[in-house]
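Are you able to produce any protein sequence you like plus the matching backbone structure tokens because I've never seen that pairing?
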Amino acid sequence: MLGRRSETFAFRRSKRQGMTMSVTERYHRADIPCAVEGSTCCERNRQLESQGIPMLRADAPILVPDASVVSRYIEVLEQGEEIVNLVFCQTVVDALDRRNRTRTMRNVRRIAADGRRRAVVFANEVSVHTMVPAGQTATAPARDMRAVLCAANWYKSHLGPRSTVAVLTLKDYSEIVGGDQPGVPIWNMADFIGQYHPELQQLFASVTEATAGSEMDITAMTPEQYAKARLQAKAQGEFSRHLSAADIADGLRRGELVRGKIRIVQRSRGVIERGDGQPDIDIVGRAALNRACSGDTVVVRLLGHAEASALKQQHVEGADALSGHANDDGEEKDKRDDEDDERDGLARLADAGDEPPVSAVERKCVHGVVVGVAHRSWRPYVATLQADDSGGARHLAVPVDANVPKIRMHYMDTATLDGQYFVVCIDSWPADSQYPQGHFVRTLGSVGSLDTQIDAILVERQIATSQAKLGFSTAVLREMPDDSPDQQWAPGESDIRGRRDLRDWLVFSIDPRGCVDIDDAMSIRRLADGGVELGVHIADVAHFIHPGSAADQEARARGTTVYLADRRFNMIPEVLSERVCSLHSGVDRLAVSVVWNMDAEMRPRSIWFGRTVIRSSCELSYEQAQAMLDGQPGHLDPSLEPSVREAIVQLACAMRTVRSRRMADGALELASTEVKFGFDEVTSEVTELATKASLEVHRVVEEAMVMANAAVARRIYEAFPQSALLRRHRSPSGDRFERLVRAMASRGLSIDHSSNAALARSLALVAQQRADDPDLVFLAKTMATLAMQEADYFATGDCDAAGYHHYGLALEFYTHFTSPIRRYADIVVHRQLMDAVFGGRSVAGSQQWVAATAVLLNERNRQSKIAQRESAELFQSRYVAQRTRDSILVADGVVAEIRTHGLIVYVPQLGLRGPVHLQDSFGTIKMPLSVVSDKPGDADTMLDGCSDFAAEPTQLSLRLPFSTPGLAAINAQRDLRFCIFDHVRVRVRVLDTGRRRPQVYMTLVGRPYTAVASAKKKSLRPVNTSVALPTVGDQQKTATIIDEAKDGSDAAFASVSGHYAVLEKFAALSVLETSCDVQTL
């Protein structure tokens, strides 16, 4: 419904085009909805509700922040999760856009997309009820204030006198309203926080202090004053100024500039991976990075060969080619601090995992410099304090992530931050400042505290502001079914009505020992014609979580249950995840089932989908099920065990056939390893690392779940070809296999990666040819996995059907259906399946909503996996630190990668990898005497005079000096060479600087050697300490702990048996994987 048309004019000056005028036309409408829940005044409200778009609550005050609040205090609005029912006016968004405040605009969109916040963006500029002509006030800020007030007054009159609507501001509105009453309350932001949200006062004060006198408040200057100030500002020498939006658009159009997302791989080096056969862009040096941070979308100017060579040479020599030397207060000292960090080899090697492999360095690439930042990816950072010892109030926050620059912030009482983790946010990064400018947010706790370190992981991964915030709100808990020890929940007649009753079927679950959130169970029975009836039964979580409810919005926002090494944070409340929905034995439970009628060759003849009610006969652990499969006792009720044993054997036989058929189609055989930690109940110290053996029953359950996921994917796609939520695994490009091909070629093996089937055959052939070297076989598989892209969710309408294929599983259609207790994607798929079966169409049928949800879930899953990895690394480092307090830890490892300055070694007994640093950033070779003496105590004594250091994709070589002590006595060669897959002994320890996370690193002990595939080794007999390293499989490797007091003598090294199984996700090296890890694909 169109009304009047209006025009606005804007003028822009650029270097290329001079002065240009742009005209914006707006057609005013009378049908802009209020987006208030339950309001019948606006016809389009019902449409918004059906699409699952978050709406305002009618029973709570509606807050309308103006541009002064949003531009300066967006951090407070975003962190203050209790501040709800927000209306962001289009006027405010337009004002932000005029100032190029893209990050603030993204924050606004993020708040509005979070259903828990009940926030909306109201198009007041195009509504006939709220439009304010530009000529009504003298200045643009005054006009914008009048427009926000007009929108707030419309909400008040629209909803009636009982409603509460207020404007949040930093400004004085008396000049805007004159002598009239404003119509709605005008609340000062400081008063609002102090009266209604005192818990945010510290954050509000920090932001106020950090932004005082800055340009954060966009209403402080008129557009003319702002433009004049920008024209008068000049670069002070630290960095080049970024190009204007007009110059960037012109350069992109001409092909002179390139746009992409940058990944910082070292402090002063970034990479933009372009794909599609185009060379990556390498950006070397702080000046070339030009204030870009990891994750930013940047605009880059490509360099010619001569300019790139000169830039790299000057960077190596320590002088940045494009930077000057002007500093603000204290920056000269800060530069010296950075130089000290660079000279500290341990500090550098602690994060050496981010240093690119030699093959990546040699891969074809081009060089460039950043000339603009299109989108900032700044987030809250966890940091420690580097105080200004001169007594000033401007200090440096040192982020725990070494690839994030130090952040300058203002803080008075530094004593309270000593030895503490705290959260800091970046506000800006002026061209004349060496560091970005930011502000203190809050303290997390002591650096050494385990809970503080867990909180730091949650904040860094943007999962939550703290563990306490991961509890569930009263609104969510109010929607939960009643369940207590005195009166346990049971399905009533209304719950069972319309469901297929399978309570007389033999249904059983197989899960890790001690599992309480059981979301899948299985059944199988033989048919008279030799076929089978196979059932996969999944907890009906969607029955209890309704679209748009508080529990649904919370589950969508979380996306997934977060599993850490010693704890987990549930996606849905425990009353559902552990009791009402969990498929425990002996109780009636609601399920969604997939039942196949299969012939004797295990090919489906028909598939039934629907809601069911089941009663599980037993809960089996993987070990129990495997024992029964092997003919051993399962320790079940004697009357039940024979039938369960028969069912497990039938299930295993059926899944072997199905799996072999899928493997023949090109599915990749992916190994998985699970390493669990044992903890002391009193001290919380890590007491053991337990490696879980790979059992056949794991693959049996995996295959049943894959079958169900694939069948459901095809069914929902047939019903909703544009909006089905599927999961794809795209085919990797050939150049991603370069490292695997080179590594295999160095051992006389070949890899064909032309298709998934060819790759599977190649890996199988490698396993056959090198059966005596399981280490090589496992590393080959991990390199293949590393070359692949991550699987992700998508809405089918977003790409062609050719893009639906799942590369790793060799399936045409795939989704996630089998774990609704821990994944929100599965809840969405359950809703779509029920709509497909019964003919409904819920919000899960909207392509727009499904596409937006897929993007959110992909990010949540990625952050959850990183948090899981970081948690495992935290406990691994704590374990090593504990075991090396009074002893020296020496272990056998395998060279997994060659890096430009050393090696990456994997130690399977400890389930970790770490860097072996052999050259510092100044080219000095760091070869320990222990490589010759074979004594761990010599690991800190470096040999002087080493030369001829050369790092290649598959090997690293150097020459020892003539003066090396003991070299002649052992008749050793001066030339050392380390090849990929070589076995080495390393001394393992932990670097804890007190500023960043503790990191495991290693030092060589002895020369590389070739492992012998035999079991003629001794068991571990550590001195003065104990290490629980389980025996799994037949491979025998050495791990030794030596008494520090005996250091310096020739020690007899004991050995330990362990499984040399490298974790499948080698890039992330997560040591905690689900037993059905194939489902993570």
In short: The chain is about 30% helix and 25% strand. The two ends are 47 Å apart (CA to CA).
